[in-house]
């Protein structure tokens, strides 16, 4: 996969997690599967903050189309991970969200880019992002 390009936007949400023993691989560091779980949890926090959910983003169902994860630095047991979320790109049918995970020393540990599409709840057809984008812009 290609490297994630530099994010020049503003972050719209931050979640914080303390790394637990069960989050670690046998190599005693945070694995990609757990990073994906944590950024999913942070995305859920963002949606809940805006009275939405993965099943209901302004009447649409959120589907993850693509994930690109770039590991920059190890995360260890009891580290605090601050996950910052920004809107990276918006197209007619897709919203790309940028995740930047920083440790307690403010060092970038991982970056992720997730492409989301949104489906009509009744017929599961793709919905135009005009129907949902305000959910990501509200403060």
Short description:
This protein is of the alpha+beta class and 139 residues long.
Please specify the SSE layout and strand pairing.
Elements: E1 11-18, H1 32-49, E2 60-71, E3 80-90, E4 95-102, E5 108-120, H2 133-137
Antiparallel strand pairs: 1-3, 2-5, 3-4, 4-5
List keywords for this structure.
about 35% strand; about 140 residues; single chain; five-stranded antiparallel β-sheet; 2 helices; about 15% helix; Thiol Ester Dehydrase, Chain A; 5 strands; alpha+beta
Walk me through what this model shows.
This protein is α+β, with helices and mostly antiparallel strands and 139 residues long. It has 2 helices and 5 strands. The protein has helices spanning 32-49, 133-137; strands at 11-18, 60-71, 80-90, 95-102, 108-120. Strands 1-3-4-5-2 form a 5-stranded antiparallel β-sheet. The mean pLDDT is 92.
Q: Distance N terminus to C terminus?
A: 33 Å
As for the CATH topology, it is Thiol Ester Dehydrase, Chain A
CATH architecture: Roll
* Portion of residues within helices: 10-25%
Classification by helices and strands: alpha+beta
The largest sheet is:
5 strands, antiparallel
**Rg for CA atoms:** 15 Å
Overall tally of structural domains: 1
Pfam families: 4HBT_2 (PF13279)
Protein name: Thioesterase
InterPro entries: HotDog_dom_sf
